[in-house]
Amino acid sequence: MSYVGFTKDVIVQVKNKSDRPVLLVSGLEIENALGWSGNFLKLLHDKKQALLVNREVLLDETPKHQSHIKKVKPGDLPSSKTEFLYPDGHRSSWFTSGGGFGMFTFVPEMPDIDWASAGGSGVSVDIAVSVDGQNGLLDVIRQMAEMGWVNTNGSWSIQQAHANWHGFGTQSLCEALQSWATRYEGMETHHSEEMCYFNEIDDGYYTLTASISADKNRSIWHAELSFQLVGIPLDLNPLRELCERLGIHERIHFRPRIDKSVTRGHPKRDTKLRSVVPVAFVVASPDSEILVDSEWVVGIVVKNPFRLGHGSKRNTMPEWIPHILSDTEFLVCSLRSWHAVDSHKSGYDLWMIESSWTSDALIARAVTDWRSDDGGEEMVLQPYGDVALETDDNGVTRVTPINGKKD
Fold it and tell me: For 119-166, what is each residue's pLDDT tens digit?
């Protein structure tokens, strides 16, 4: 440790003898690391990993505190062309429902990394991301967007002890995270919340998960990127550049998956679980000259027929349903056959549920379809079953039971 600094010769010698690591620490780094928001052990860990992996000497790098990171605005991130359309005609890019903890999110399409002509299994790459606070987490997403790792088709979920929030696109995710105080109004909360973001990429998909403190500090206790790829890419430069840009110096490994990527299951045709009633529609405006940017219903939101507890008569779930979905109040479903927004159908059926695990999160896709033998009857937009919609002053829509009834 030195307050006056180190000569270039010393730094070169440390690099050349990286197999016997010597960690150089400046007085400024000591002061910052031992301060109120510093982390001395992490400082030493980052220095050692940078030396062993990249033969790089980290020196005089002042830790980035949340207050020093430029606040990311929703407009800085890609928006989604997908929205929720409610019975009263209101639209929003995310909604609130009952639920509990569990790292998962609903996805519009299920990527299958095993769908390849070659034998073998896909691989996983897990990267722990070091960020300081919510602004730092959003800055990671912004940087990934600049590098092409984020597109408009992403989806996300946030879990609290008694509520879940679901949405599309990073712009709405930013809005939801930054409006945490509004989301918590009138709600019993745990000391933290969990976030899961999904995005599909050319070689597979990834999830970004994080545990965030449920207070004004918005501290990040853990954040991780988990990539699920068809195989080990021949060109590793994109991953290497991502690690360098995010300041990740640890050794990164590809690990083969031992289980098949996607699990699928479906209810029997004669079961009551097959028939579902939408409480909202998922509407998208595809970028297509053929579709002339017309709006289409590409999915529906339905009450979760597999939910356990909360007055439900169900005691167990079918084996083909991931148990992590047992507490969520609603399912965000994809439609096998799209239909125009003004072409309402008489009924919808649940066809199957697809799911896939990353190292620490689940992505799920419930698939539904409208009945082709509807006899021309139209399904009128209205609150279905025992649920109603409430929209607050900030435009956030909550789907809630009527008269306090719950499934």
Answer: 888 999 999 998 889 999 999 999 999 999 999 889 999 999 999 999
d(CA 4, CA 177) in angstroms, rounded, equals 42
Q: Which residue in 394, 299, 364 sits closest to 99, CA to CA?
A: 364
Q: In the numeric block, which tokens belong to residue 219?
A: 């501290």
Instruction: Characterize 289-303 residue by residue with b for buried, 16 or more Cβ atoms within 10 angstroms of its Cβ, and e for exposed.
Output: eeeeeebbbbbbbbb
pLDDT digits (tens, 9 = 90+) for 189-215: 999 999 999 999 999 999 999 999 999
Tokens read off for 166: 């679901």
> Would you kindly state where each structural domain of the chain is located, as residue ranges?
8-63, 108-256, 263-404
**Cβ(389)–Cβ(383) under 8 Å?**
yes
- Close Cβ partners of 399 (under 8 Å, ≥ 6 residues apart): 95, 96, 97, 279, 280, 301, 329, 330, 387, 388, 389
**Which of these, 229, 236, 257, lies nearest to 116 by C-alpha position?**
229
Question: For position 103, what pLDDT does the model report?
Answer: 94
Residue 376 has pLDDT above 60, yes or no: no
Q: What's the CA angle centered on 259, arms 257 and 262, to 5 degrees?
A: 105
Regarding pTM above 0.85, the answer is: no
Is the CB of residue 72 less than 8 Å from the CB of residue 133? Answer: no
- Give the whole-angstrom CA distance, residue 350 versus residue 345: 14
